[in-house]
Design goal:
alpha+beta, Immunoglobulin-like, 3 domains, seven-stranded antiparallel sheet, 11 helices, 27 strands, about 30% strand, globular, disordered C terminus
Length: about 500
């Protein structure tokens, strides 16, 4: 339970699921996967419940800093608890490590009890096993070692953690983050070295020094968005980059605030917090107005508010600085990000489609109805045009129809008729993916068994509706040759899609 909880804290996961596929309450059978046993009218916690409760008690108010290197066999994670370093370490095979401890260091067992480690002196030998060892009170120099290690992981990985998965469209942060200023990774590392020297030599000054590192991250955020403004668009994976840089800033803020719990020296003044709150209020009126929203800017405002709430409720300077960075980022995004109309939108029904398990499928050689309804949640009536963009082989491959919708209401159904070619014959059999496995379908050889239908729209005043994409299957269920392979749970069935306007 410690291993699982510590790993989730490492990934900054807020939700903790203690087991997979089990139950919360069950019988007193030892093989039961429940956390609580039911004995008569009483609920009795079993070992898993106790382990979960203790792990949560020990780790829930701890802040993850980074990994420590005690050899390839050991997994060692450093946390800050009440401002002091705490180690959670384990090894699948018994492994002995040497670790420097503070004079009052304590080992925490599975029941949360604390007792002094064996031996004397600064350096002690600790044997790691598959059962995690929790040590509260490491020597404070481990703090900056873990800080450097985790900062490097943020810079050299796509998502801030090590994995063998290839993300494809994004690369290491030091590469993607250098888009607007190529020397940024080197500048960040040099600033990190300076911060570590301060934190090691003057521990009380460490939290404020980490604020300098946050400003380096914010500076690159601002440079990136100003470069986008100069180009007139959000270039490349800018949205993803904004998220990653803000995540880095928030981690630095959490670590700074956790370390400052020892002294409570760096607390934002209420007057400064009030100014940020006023600016957030002004930005909200800009980002949300007349049914228009700037999605990325709105997300940044949400993150800014969350960080500011932490700064107010817990008197945290690092969270306050992260809120400042997110607020400034939102203000810059409004100048370059395309806005989206969210309270007027079009939704399609496909009443002539066949439901193949989890896939809507259209049969070739048959005329189909792409039925659209436009919903208007504004106080003014609207009118405009909806447009279907379809595969080039369909007839027609583009359809435009007008619509009108009353205030706080919806339009009449707009029927758009389209035919998928049924030639040449004979049809061939292909597999279409249905979400729970392949389903055999027959269709003309040139056609793909899956197609993307895009529904767009524009109001008469020039505002564009949010595009809606519908991925559908193409073909006819090959029942005569494949029915024996289908189970009762995945046999296809037909449905008629309806609208509330029917």
């Amino acid at each position: 339970m410690y291993r699982l909880y510590a790993t989730l804290k490492k990934w900054n996961e807020r939700i903790f699921c203690p087991f997979h596929g089990g139950r919360l309450i069950g019988s007193a059978d030892p093989a039961s996967s429940a956390l609580l046993w039911q004995k008569g009218d009483q609920l009795v916690p079993n070992a898993k419940y106790v382990a979960f409760a203790v792990a949560r008690w020990v780790l829930s108010n701890a802040t993850y800093v980074g990994p420590l290197d005690f050899g390839d066999e050991a997994e060692a994670l450093l946390f800050l608890k009440h401002g002091r370093p705490m180690l959670v370490a384990w090894a699948d095979e018994d492994t002995t490590i040497s670790v420097d401890l503070a004079d009052d260091a304590r080992i925490v067992d599975e029941m949360g009890r604390k007792f002094p480690p064996t031996g004397t002196g600064l350096t002690r030998s600790i044997t790691l096993t598959a059962r995690p060892t929790v040590i509260y009170g490491l020597h404070y120099t481990y703090f900056t070692k873990a800080l450097r290690n985790q900062a490097e992981i943020y810079l050299t990985t796509p998502q801030g953690f090590k994995t063998d998965r290839n993300f494809g469209y994004i690369g290491p942060l030091q590469r993607d983050g250098a888009w607007a200023w190529a020397r940024w990774p080197g500048h960040f590392r040099r600033t990190l070295v300076s911060v570590i020297k301060i934190a090691d030599g003057q521990p009380r000054a460490g939290p404020r020094a980490l604020g300098t590192l946050q400003m380096v991250v914010h500076g690159q955020l601002y440079r990136t968005l100003r470069e986008c403004e100069a180009q007139g668009k959000l270039a490349g994976p800018t949205a993803n980059l904004i998220h990653r840089l803000q995540t880095l800033s928030e981690w630095l803020g959490r670590v700074a605030d956790a370390r400052d719990e020892c002294w409570q020296m760096y607390q934002p003044r209420s007057s400064l917090v009030d100014k940020v709150n006023e600016r957030l209020k002004e930005l909200r009126s800009t980002i949300h107005h007349d049914g228009i929203v700037y999605p990325l800017a709105a997300q940044c405002l949400q993150r800014a508010q969350q960080q500011l709430d932490k700064a107010v409720n817990r008197q945290r300077g690092g969270a306050y600085r992260a809120a400042i960075g997110a607020t400034n980022t939102a203000a810059l995004l409004v100048r370059v990000e395309p806005s989206v109309l969210i309270n007027i939108f079009a939704v399609a029904n496909l009443p002539t489609a066949t439901q193949l398990v989890k896939t809507l499928t259209l049969t070739p050689g048959v005329q189909h109805n792409l039925r659209v309804c436009v919903y208007n949640f504004t106080d003014q009536p609207v009118a405009g045009t909806i447009t279907w963009e379809l595969p080039e082989t369909w007839d027609p491959h583009q359809i435009a129809k007008s619509f009108s919708a009353p205030a706080q209401g919806y339009s009449e159904l707009v029927d758009c008729l389209v035919t998928i070619p049924g030639e040449p014959r004979p049809w061939v059999e292909k597999q279409t993916w249905s979400g729970s496995g392949g389903v055999p379908v027959q269709l003309p050889e040139p056609l793909a068994q899956r197609s993307d239908l895009c529904l767009k729209g524009q109001l008469d005043d020039g505002r564009a509706l949010l595009p809606m994409h519908y991925e559908v299957g193409v073909g006819e269920w090959a029942s005569s040759t494949n029915e024996p392979q289908l189970t009762q749970s995945n046999k296809p069935f037909s449905i008629q899609a309806t609208s509330s306007a029917d």
